[in-house]
Amino acid sequence: MVRLTPMSLPQIANVVGAVFVMGGNVYSIISPWDVYYTGKETYFTPAPWSFFIWPLIHMLILGTTIYQFSGRGKEIVLDRIGWRLPLLDFLNAMYIYSWGTQEYRYALVFSLFSAAVVSQIYLEVKKTNLRNFSDEVFLHLPFSLYHGWVVGLVFLSAFEAFGVDALTEPAGPWTKGFVFGSFVLLQLADFGYAYSAVEGDLPGCLAISWFLFAVVVQQSKERSEFVHWSGLGFAIVSLCWIMRCVIGLELKFRGRHNRLGIGEETSRLLGGH
Asked: Of 31, 163, 168, 252, which is most buried by a Cβ count within 10 Å?
């Protein structure tokens, strides 16, 4: 006879939080509010389809809550991440609600708190020695995607809270300067993902590249040539960091664990011995 082990309070909180946030996100998609298409238009707003990365992230987080019932999952999700996961679910739910009701200053606050908590979880997972495919899918992938996407959302929330309406006001010098500066900071974050390890962090780079290309699509030349073309330039550069991660993964799989991603053959070509 199989004995069922009762769930602990953190396990219950993780399951309830994941289901609640995922349900709220689904409702925001099918509700008559149509929040992805009716929000404030800024000069940093991405195309509405980019927000459909949320269901993917929440599906992966739901997988994380299921993984917590395994021995390895319990070690990481419960013992190391702990209550930060349900806290992240709560902050994410509040962000989605504030953003959906167009309370953009509250959305900015919740996005900052979400970024802080997911950063702690992300660093905790990065410090963990990932042992198998399940670790990659249920621990590394969801929080890397989450972290990269939230970085973009923090900048978006700031523009929504304090920026001009792109439908009614032209982009002035200050707006263009802040947009360009935000692109630079996103590119630095992308660079950090690419060189955070031998293999880089491919999901994080993909999330930022996804955000940048979505901004380029939404910010047409007719709206602002400066924003469109500068965004396109940064989006193309972001593909370089994705390629760096792909090469890093290939090097890792071949057992070349040099921190700079340079293998023995390359080292000899460069004059090494």
From this structure: 163
Angle CA(109)–CA(111)–CA(115) in degrees, nearest 5?
120
SS3 per-residue string spanning 48-81: HHHHHHHHHHHHHHHHHHHHCCCHHHHHHHHHHH
Mean pLDDT of 106-122: 95
Query: Could you give phi then psi for residue 88, rounded to 5 degrees?
Result: -65, -40
Q: Retrieve residue 136's tokens.
A: 């990659």
If DSSP states are collapsed to H, E and C, what string results for 92-152? HHHHHHHHHCCCHHHHHHHHHHHHHHHHHHHHHHHHCCCCCHHHHHHHHHHHHHHHHHHHH
Measure CA 123 to chain center.
13
Cβ atoms within 10 A of the Cβ of 218, count?
22
H or E, element range at 204: helix 202-218
